[in-house]
Design a protein that fits this description.
Shape: rod-shaped
Strand content: under 5%
Largest sheet: none
Structural class: mainly alpha
Radius of gyration: 39 Å
Order of helices and strands: HHH
Distance between the termini: 115 Å
Low-confidence stretches: none
Oligomer: single chain
Mean pLDDT: 78
């Protein structure tokens, strides 16, 4: 069986002694605060992948909308040209 001190003073004096505290700190090693470098690397990598994905999605959306705008402008240009030809516009006059 384990030896139990009769009063709490003996136990407190043993645990709070300078030798006991130094021994516990030496066994535990240096205390580090904050995340480890691996956690930081994973967080930075995740942020980079997310940012790259957002850029790709934005470029795709912009490209698709630009294609639609260019197609609409081309169609409007063709319709305007057909309307001008129907009204008798001479396209060769402006080449002088």
């Amino acid at each position: 069986m384990s030896k139990v001190p009769e009063n709490g003073d003996e136990m407190a004096s043993e645990a709070s002694g300078p030798v006991a505290g130094e021994t516990a700190q030496a066994e535990a090693g240096p205390v580090r605060s904050g995340p480890s470098w691996k956690q930081v690397a994973v967080a930075v990598g995740s942020l980079a992948v997310t940012a790259a994905g957002a850029v790709v999605v934005t470029l795709i959306a912009t490209h698709n909308s630009a294609r639609m705008a260019n197609a609409a402008a081309y169609a409007h240009g063709l319709l305007d040209g057909a309307e001008a030809a129907k009204n008798g516009y001479d396209f060769d006059e402006d080449d002088d």
